[in-house]
TrEMBL record:
Transmembrane segments: none annotated. Keywords: Signal. This is Cytochrome C2 [Lactobacillus sp.]. Gene3D superfamilies: 3.30.1380.10. The keyword tRNA processing does not apply. The lineage of its organism: Bacteria, Bacillati, Bacillota, Bacilli, Lactobacillales. One of its GO terms (molecular function) is peptidase activity. It comes from Lactiplantibacillus mudanjiangensis. Residues 1-25 form the signal peptide. It comes from the Bacteria.
Amino acid sequence: MMRKSVLTGLAMVGLVGLLSGCATSDASSKASSSSSAQTTKTVSKRQKLINALPKGVKSTDADLIVVNKWHKHNELSFSKSTVSGITVRSSIVKPLTAFLNGATKAGYPATLVSGYRSVQYQKEVWAESIETYEGQGKTEKQALKLTKEYVAVPRGSEHQTGLAADIMNTTWFDAHNSQLLSSSDKAKGQQWLIKHAPDYGFVLRFTKTGTKSTGIDYESWHFRYVGKKSAAFMTKHNLTLEQYVSLLKSREAAKK
Ligand SMILES: [Zn+2]
C-alpha cells in the first residue's frame, strides 16, 4: 500500500513538471523522453491527456489567450460592454450574466468586483505602489520587490483581456470590508461559484495546485472565461490555462 502510494506520488510530480511552464516545456520533455522508465510513463500520461483534448478547440482561439508575467501583451483590441457597471469583453456578457444569475438563483448572490482593466491603468497602479513604498522609506529595490508581490506587472495582467472577472459572494464580501481574500472560499456562496463556474464556461484561474505554472498565488475570486468545453476539461484534469494551452499546442504540432 505504502509503496504504491509513493510511486503514484512520484508519477504525479513528474506529470506536473512536464505540464508546467509554457513554450519551452515541450522541447525539454521531448529531449528527456527516453532517459528513464519513469519519464516514459509520464510522457504517456501527457499523451493520454492530449488524445482526450476536446475537439474543435485551438490554442489560438481568442478565448484561450494567455497573459501572464512571462507572456506580456500590449493593449488588445476588442469590443467592450458592461455587466453590473463593470467593463468586460462583449463576448462574455451572456455567460457572465448567466453565471451571476445562477448564483442568485442558488441562493448565493455574488458581486462582480472587477473585469477589464487597461494596460495604462496597470501602469498607474504599479507606479503608485512603488511611490507609496518609497514614501514609506523603502529603497527602490525593496519597493520594486514588494510591488511585484502584490501588483500584476504592467502588460502581464489577465484583466487586460476582458475575459477575467473577480467575483465574490456578496454576503462574505460585504462582511469583510470589500476585500479580495483567499479565505473567502470558506463561504458556501464562494464554494458554489468555484464549483459551478465551468457550467458557464469559466474556470477558477489561480488554483492552489497551479501556482508554479501561473506565477500567481491562489485566488478564490478570479474567474476566467475559456468556453464550456475547455472549462470542463481543465476542471476534470486540474489543469491551469498555461498547461492546457501547452497540451493543445502539442496536439497541433503533431498534426503538422
Ligand atoms: Zn483578478
